[in-house]
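> @MW can you paste both from yesterday?
MW: sure, first one:
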Amino acid sequence: MKVEHGNLTLTSNGKRVTYHNITDQVREFVASTGIKDGICALSSPHTTCSVIFEEFVHDFDWNGDELLQVDLNKVLETWIPRQLTESDYLYPGPKHVAFLQELGAKDPNYPVDPATVLNADAHIKGSLFGSSETLVIKNGELLIGSVGYLYFIDWDQNRERNRTCNMIVMGL
């Protein structure tokens, strides 16, 4: 059995939910491994991000978002509205804000500005959709059909930043 690791660095826009179509990059990574039969697992180490398998729909809105993604965001917004103030959700509590401010003094990935952690909605969406997908590889190809595509989603809308999608391919 052969095992190959890789990752993608993706930049979130920080203004709205960010969808990255990662299908081509994942296909290229799978091809580069030389593995013909096995599995490919994709995962996010970020608690406000998800990896999903969905249909590519060919139509986009004015922001460049696929219409199915726009519809998904619209539905989710009715169930899990965006957190705009500290009173919208219980999260983050005062102990967590203090922890993040302390962390931010040491790690530039965590700004000291407490408004950047008003993202309970992003955490809930990330929990609901999960952080990973596992796919079958047969004859060197991902078995994702003709319209199946892979997306990395950052649900957090509070700031632009780089995100990581981890990849592992295992097989023969």
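MW: second:
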Amino acid sequence: MAKRVALVLGSGGARGIAHVGVIRELLKRGYEITAISGASMGALIGGVWAAGKLDEYCEWAEKLAYLDMIRLLDVSLLDPGMIKGDKLFDRIRQIVGDRRIEDLPVPYTAVAVSLTARKEVWFQRGDLITAIRASCAIPSLFKPVKMHDQLLVDGAVLNPLPLAPAGAALADLVIAVNVLGEPEPDFDRQETPDEEEGALFTGLLNRWVPKQKNEKKRLEKSMGLLDVSNQSMELMQQSLTRYKMAGYVPDILVTVPKNICQFYEFHRFKEVVVTGQERAAAALDEWEANQGIQHLLEADAECEG
């Protein structure tokens, strides 16, 4: 049975924590990840894993609460992005170390977008944390990365599920993880009293954004500018993902519904990881069962021949 995997990890904010569960399920079953590519949160999780620091990252990240995340936000109203990101990515560098992509044990690709050249940029060499930071630079939220006269932002702007790099990998199959799947009723939930701090996160960010002068429309009343920007980005990513998969069809697609959590709910680390692992197990069970059936059919054909 095929065991070498080219793994493709999609964007999706905190939903991308599900990638941790997918990786754990693959390794548990004895699959070998021989290449990894990702956009935004997918680039972060993939890069941390490729650097051999996923356990250390998880040990830190699963303890984060709302207020911890807010303390990591170095807000600047003078930069082209509300959050500079220095504190957050300095902490990630402390975990991962100063690693170069070409020195990683497996081929790794982080996808960003150059606003200057108006095209995708694939990081396959250079400083790992810089590549991750560029791939995660959500427009209007995080400060873009300036490099070689280029202004780089979130790879999800053009390629939220970067399947193309997997085509050149030495692998038996391509597994892609889309964490912006259609919402499912099982994940709809009511906000509980102990989650009131959740409103603090988006509330503070929305206050840092200049207010809309015209708030007459119902949508503008119910949603802050950050919410509108986020939902617009998600809609674009969902459309682009369908487009990309029409040209590059993965052997296995693991889909996680987008209502598993909100894009900022990093405090729900453990439950999102569990869901990612469950979805990976279901997809792998189905694929392995089909492989078994195919093997039996081929054996019968040989006997009849």
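> thanks! The two ends are 23 Å apart (CA to CA).
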